[in-house]
Design brief:
This protein has 290 residues and is mainly beta. It has one domain: Beta-galactosidase, Chain A, domain 5. It has a nine-stranded antiparallel β-sheet, with no helix packed on it. Bound molecules: 6-O-phosphono-alpha-D-glucopyranose. The site of 6-O-phosphono-alpha-D-glucopyranose (G6P) has 11 residues, from strand 18 and strand 19.
Length: 290
């Protein structure tokens, strides 16, 4: 049977969630996504009405200056503690502007440098996040431009929390054979072991020069393919029960309900000369249940 024809239209509504402005995108086929202007943070993606694919912590804070736990945090201009800035940079802490939600399928959010960003980083930049719905697909596109007159560098990630109904039986394929840095073990280098990733206990890995495609299975949902362009590395994270208990915005046992598959560029910072731009895209695509 051929797929239903895709009509190239999208409905955009400005809504409030937890008292903060969000944009809801709804496609003809009923697929939807929600994006908070706080951090240009995708908080929901349902490729089919009622089938949520992203995890959002019930205890997440949506207040300015804090990061939303779950969804797709935009990590920029510094990944984790790899530099002098606050962990994961400031992009996820600040309010972005909606600049375009009128073309067919993409909503675009922008963050420009100014007093709020200069408090963290002197660079002149613009960042744009595009969020696009297509059948069974969510595409998130991060573009960074050097708007200043000196070169600077950055690291970045789309820190995607994928919803699972329990960690037992969940696997992430596509990284078999890839060596990684084990951030849960002082960043020590580990060889690829030829196996898909399973989750039991804390797992925090950076796979350099390994951008997938990845395949999430066992979430009690159809399999999900994760592909990246522009991002060179992949980060995989779940805090495990012990670390999760110390994370204030995760409730009891909540670590069982997500795995993070992050399209990232971390190991080799990107250097942008004045006027130069960089682009990284992560695409999530639901595959037919096998
Ligand atoms: O708690 P956050 O600041 O959001 O960071 C959550 C996690 O992000 C990444 O996945 C890092 O690899 C982890 O080391 C970190 O703990």
């Amino acid at each position: 049977m051929s797929p239903a024809p895709w009509r190239d239209t999208m409905r955009f509504e400005q809504i409030e969630h937890k008292g903060r402005p969000h944009l809801r995108l709804t496609a003809d086929d009923g697929a939807s996504a929600e994006v908070s202007l706080h951090g240009a943070h995708v908080t929901s993606w349902q490729p089919t009405p009622g089938r949520e694919r992203l995890y959002l912590s019930p205890n997440a804070s949506h207040a300015t200056g804090t990061a939303i736990r779950g969804g797709i945090p935009v990590v920029f201009p510094q990944f984790a503690g790899r530099g002098p800035m606050i962990k994961h940079g400031f992009a996820r802490l600040l309010d972005w502007r909606l600049i375009n939600a009128s073309n067919a399928r993409t909503a675009i959010f922008e963050l420009n440098d100014g007093p709020a960003t200069h408090a963290y980083w002197p660079a002149r930049f613009s960042a744009r996040l595009g969020v696009t719905l297509a059948p069974a697909t969510l595409e998130v596109d991060l573009e960074i431009v050097n708007e200043g007159d000196a070169a600077w560098d950055f690291t970045a990630a789309l820190h995607t929390y994928l919803r699972v109904s329990g960690l037992a039986g969940v696997s992430l394929g596509g990284l078999e054979g890839a060596p990684y840095f084990d951030s849960a073990n002082h960043g020590s280098r580990a060889p690829g072991d030829g196996k898909v990733v399973h989750f039991s206990g804390e797992l925090d890995r950076i796979y350099p020069d390994a951008a997938g495609p990845l395949l999430l299975r066992g979430a009690n949902l159809p399999p999900l393919e994760i592909t990246a362009r522009g991002f060179r590395d992949t980060v995989v994270w779940n805090p495990g029960a012990h670390l999760a208990a110390s994370i204030a915005d995760l409730g009891d046992g909540e670590h069982e309900h997500f795995v993070c598959a992050e399209s990232a560029t971390v190991i080799e910072p990107v250097t942008l000369a004045p006027g130069e731009r960089w682009r990284g895209t992560q695409r999530l695509r639901e595959l037919p249940a096998s």
